[in-house]
Structures are given as C-alpha cells and as structure tokens.
Amino acid sequence: MKEIIAIIRPRKVSATKEALVKLGYPSLTAIPVLGRGKQKGLEGEVNIEYRSGILEQNKHGGMKYIPKRYLSIVIPDDEVDVVLDAIIKVNQTGQIGDGKTFVCPVEDAIRIRTDEQGVDALN
Questions:
Q1: Is there a contact between 81 and 3 (Cβ–Cβ < 8 Å)?
Q2: Which one, of 37, 54, 56, lies nearest residue 46 by Cα?
Q3: Residue 6: what pLDDT?
Q4: What are phi and psi of 81, to 5 degrees?
Q5: For the chain, which end, N or C, has fewer CB atoms within 10 Å of the first or last residue's CB respectively?
Q6: What pTM was computed for the model?
Q7: pLDDT tens digits, 12-58
C-alpha cells in the first residue's frame, strides 16, 4: 500500500474529490494548511501572514504563508499511477502554486470497527 499526499489549492479540492470518486477512491483526509514553496509567499494585494497560530498583517505587503489543502489517500500499490495522474490532471494549471504530491510506503492499515487489515481495510 502507498499513501499519496497532495498539497493543492483550496479551490481544487472539490474537483479532486470528484476525480477520485470516479476512480473508486472516495475515502481521503483533507486538512487546511498554510505553507509556501520556492516563491516564498505572495507579494502585493495579500497583506496577512501566519505567526504564532494567528494570521497577522505582514509589514512587507505580502503573505509569507499561503493557504493550501493537504490531502492524504491510502491506496493499493498497483493504483498509484492512476490516482497520481488524476490528481495532477485536476490540479495542474501551469502556474506557480499548483502544489506537490508525495508517495510514501504504508506498512499496514487496520479498520478499527472490524479488525480488517491491509488492503481490505481500505474499502
């Protein structure tokens, strides 16, 4: 099994969920996060920054951290390429800030309610 982590734009979450449902993977975890990539935040119009757990005005007229969504989905090994392709297709605009994906190994999964293990716990 593998965990796919996708860090994407908030406005792309619904379309990403729809694409995953069409592939038969409706289960995922989505968490609002703040972060930045190589561009080191946003300049200009946005004038808030994240500091000590709150959003504050940035004296430099930009935003040091950008709102994103962290999606996590655990899938069988043989589905990684199909799921990654779907996530990338939905989220790729060609603009800075499209996001990133990561693929991590998962040793086991256990459904708490039924004690199902491995791939059986995913469905």
A1: no
A2: 56
A3: 98
A4: -65, -40
A5: C
A6: 0.80
A7: 999 999 999 999 999 999 999 988 777 665 554 444 444 545 454 45
